[in-house]
Specification:
5 strands, 116 residues, alpha+beta, 5-stranded mixed β-sheet, Archaeosine Trna-guanine Transglycosylase, Chain: A, domain 4
Length: 116
Amino acid sequence: MRILGVSKKWDKLKEDTFTTFRFARKDKDWYEGEFVQVFYKPRSKEREFLGIAKIVKKESRWFGARIGHPDYISNTEARIDGFEDFTQMQIWFAEQYSIRIHTESINRLTLEWDAR
């Protein structure tokens, strides 16, 4: 089971279902139906296991200026993901991933915590 790491304890993680945006993995991309171990700061001494979640939906999105187009990230999606608005989300991702936000699509993953 693969690890899905988070760098912040977002409020959304307290919900039964939450979304996260992830670039495609080079080895094996995320897929619907996959179970993942969710960790806070997985590569740190502060590492904390948060639980197991199932990816229930995977959608392709783009950063860009065509707000309102269904394939581009909306302000609403950015707020649901924990950001103040789309601009703040774009700044955060640009600091983390640089040019990738302009050249690659990003996965919008919807996950449900596993109740087992």
